[in-house]
Specification:
Layout (H helix, E strand, L loop, with lengths): L1 H21 L6 H21 L5 H23 L6 H19 L3
Helix pairs in contact: 1-2, 1-3, 3-4
Length: 105
Amino acid sequence: MTWIALILAGLLEVVWAVGLKYTEGFTRPLATAGTLAAMAGSVGLLGLALRGLPLGTAYAIWTGIGTVGTVIFGIVALDEPASALRLGCIAMIIGGIVGLKLTTA
């Protein structure tokens, strides 16, 4: 259950990171409320995951999911560049996430 909470926390991190773009400096109330709710949910689920996972592992995976998800969103939805170097860096982050998962009991 802790891994599920951590994955959901990471996905909510993507939601709030993307949401920040659409708040327009926190001037759009609906986008701001959704972003703040996603932030609270993300941190709350991370806190639950920390009950059963090491801090370093959980935090690195949480931020890794958020980073990779946000970059992929930018590439797919915002027409950001998808150069080979950029995709290689994403692959390294994913490799680190998988490595941390495999080495954590």
